[in-house]
Amino acid sequence: MNSRSKELEAESWAFALAIYARPGVPEACLALQNEAGVDVMMLLTATFAAVKHRIVLTPDEIKAMDAACRPWREQVVWRLRAVRTDLKTGPRPAPSHETEQLRSKVKALELEAEKRQNQLLAECLPTRTAANANVTAEQLRAVLENVVSLFAERQGAKPNLASSIQTIAVAAQNIS
Question: Which spans in 21-136 are helix H?
């Protein structure tokens, strides 16, 4: 990994943590994930590219990012998430105090796996020169809609997630 990729990775991860801490963003991200199968880390990386580097990702660039991280996401991140989620309700002896400790460890591993995914995504970000002007709210929403569409189409879903997209777009613009 070159120094530019390392910088982008660190910046992108810090941005993802900052935006996810904003009011309403966790709920919006979970709605997108649950209703359309959206990869939240990918969505936040696309948001980062637009807001912090003024790069509006094209649908083809979004697909390339997805291809680069899809095996990791599906084989590692999703499996860890499934184990963590299962520990909320069972199987026996879950849920219990002891299994909650295990669940916390799995959650930490899931976060570490997402951080590795962030690395893959940062390596995929285009190196083209950014636009001189800031990305408009409309351009940012369009990028977010393109990411959501990629996953929704894959699931055959047509959910109305405009309010979740708007919540993330507003939070992102407030961070910039």
Answer: 25-36, 40-53, 59-72, 78-89, 97-124
Provide the residue ranges of all domains of the chain, joining segments of one domain with +: 3-175
Are residues 57 and 65 in contact, defined by beta-carbon separation less than 8 angstroms? yes
Transcribe 73-98 into DSSP letters: IIIIIHHHHHHHHHHHH-STT-SSHH
43, 32 Cβ separation under 8 angstroms: yes
Question: Which pTM does this prediction carry?
Answer: 0.93
Contact 172, 51 (CB under 8 A): yes
CA 94 distance to own-chain centroid: 29
Least confident of 60-64, 153-157, 165-169: 153-157
- Reported as a single tens digit per residue, the pLDDT across 22-73 is 999 999 999 999 999 999 999 999 999 999 999 999 999 999 999 999 999 9
